[in-house]
Write a structure and sequence with these properties.
By secondary structure, the protein is mainly alpha-helical. The protein has helices at residues 9-14, 32-41, 47-61, 69-91; strands at 16-20, 26-30. The longest helix is centred in the C-terminal third of the chain and has 23 residues, at 69-91.
């Protein structure tokens, strides 16, 4: 994580990124870009390990109801693959 703390509510809002869940609803995730980048930097190759790490890091700064863990996990993994699939292929 960058470790940057927002100076005001407007700055905090700019740090939020929308994540679309499987049911089509969107949720705001604080520091999503940094979380994805940090997990990519771990160079994990197992999909389940990546999913677990993504959800763990998201839960540090965002509330995720335990009943929604699977929905968030799949949406996070889809976004991760969208942004970092080239890194995974290059590493193999």
């Amino acid at each position: 994580m960058t470790g940057e703390k927002p100076c005001c509510p407007a700055a905090a809002a700019r740090m939020m990124k929308k994540l679309t869940l499987a049911n089509g609803s969107q949720v705001g995730i604080a520091d999503l870009e940094d979380i994805l980048k940090e997990v990519a930097g771990l160079k994990l190759t197992n999909g389940n390990a990546i999913k677990k790490e993504l959800l763990k890091k998201v839960k540090i700064y965002n509330y995720v109801a335990s009943s929604a863990d699977n929905e968030y996990t799949e949406a996070l993994f889809s976004e991760y693959k969208r942004q970092y699939s080239g890194i995974q292929r290059e590493g193999k």
